[in-house]
Amino acid sequence: MTTPTDSLLSERGKTHGAFAEHAQITQDLKNIIVATPGYARLNASQRESLDMTAHKIGRILAGDPNFKDHWDDIAGYARLVSIELGA
Predict the structure, then answer these.
(1) At what angle do helices 68-84 and 44-62 cross, to 10 degrees?
(2) Measured between alpha carbons, how far is 75 from 71 in angstroms, rounded to an integer?
(3) Which residues are CB-contacts of 63 (< 8 A; sequence separation ≥ 6)?
(4) Which of 29, 37, 64, 87 falls between 20 and 30 A from 1, CA-CA?
(5) What angle do CA 62, 65, 70 make, to 5 degrees?
């Protein structure tokens, strides 16, 4: 029996890719970010923006690179930090 959650996961898999592949790519990117000397200088918003950007990059690489929302989301997370900085 297919549940609503199963249907949602199947649909999202078309744009987001396989979860395990996406998770590995995203965790690798986040590990690189955290390992840099500059990470300690970031505030919580900047760290979260980079985390979410890594997450979206993972979806692009594991899933559909032509899914516009992935790219719009990256721009949105960068814009949120820019707004906080007074830009």
Answers:
(1) 170
(2) 6
(3) 13, 14, 15, 16, 17, 22, 70
(4) 64
(5) 90
